[in-house]
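Notes on consecutive records. When two proteins share a document, each keeps its own sequence and its own token line. Never mix them. Below: protein one.
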Amino acid sequence: MQTIIMGFTYAGVMALFGLIWGEKFNTWQFIFNATFFGIFMGILFPVITKIVTDRVLKKTIIELEEDELLVYEGASTFKSNFSAGGKLVLTTKRLAFKPHNLNSKKTFVEIPLNKITEVEKQNTYGFIHNIFIIQKANEKFKFFVAENERDVWVSKITEYSTKAL
């Protein structure tokens, strides 16, 4: 679905630029742009991004304590006063985020599971299910993850934070 939306959005923007520059609207060019760039932006770009992300995240290591186990890990973007891409891990004791080396900000975020008061789901643009917010006392932590992983993160964090109480 996102592939189609991206393709038609790109084709629409290109058609709009063409009209602004005085070109006549070409239906076949619009269909080609929607199809080709929809496939590229919706399929090839995410695959290339995944390969690069996996390579960068392998170098980003979050040390575990002796008495904790890794529950789940993945790529994430942490957003507060700044945005930083990196690795997010859920253990039996904490949720931790470590920015990868390509970021200028190197703020390590660590949230003990027994301090989490709420886990909230949020969407980008109202339809992309890729954000969750962790509430801890008077602080909120906003994480962006892959769309197909958001619900997994939320359920696992909820499960393990309830056990930690």
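Protein two starts on the next line and is unrelated to protein one.
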Amino acid sequence: MVAEGDHRQVARNALRRTVDDRNLQLWLRVGPDVWVDEPADGADADPRMVTIGRRDDGEPAIAALPSNDVVAGRLSTLKDCSALLRPALVEAQLAFESHRADAAAEGESFRSRQ
């Protein structure tokens, strides 16, 4: 059983072993043009990313950033991993939204003290 908050790390480690790339990064789309690798670290999509999961509307939702072209080829053979990686995606989305809510509350608290 995977502990709460560990889904992304478990998914990342499983992918790294599957494609034999210990430097592979797992990127999860948590909003329009917002991708995260670690909790609440927003980043733009990297053109070298290989999409391995999609949202219900077909838009990319889960991508892996391989360390080289050989690994990119291995990733492309995995096909769609959406169902398998959905817990990691949901975890990332919740963490991102929680971070945004905390930042908004902190901003509001600061404004009310002014």
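For the record: The chain has a mean pLDDT of 84.
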